[in-house]
Amino acid sequence: MSKKMNMEKLLERQAKVLQDKQRIEIQERDIRKRIADEERRIRTHRLCTRGGMLETYLPDPENIMNDTVATLLAELFNLPTAKKLVAEIADQSTGTVSSDDSATNQIAEIPEDPYAGYEIEEPEEDE
Question: Residue ranges of the domains in the chain?
Answer without folding.
Answer: 2-63
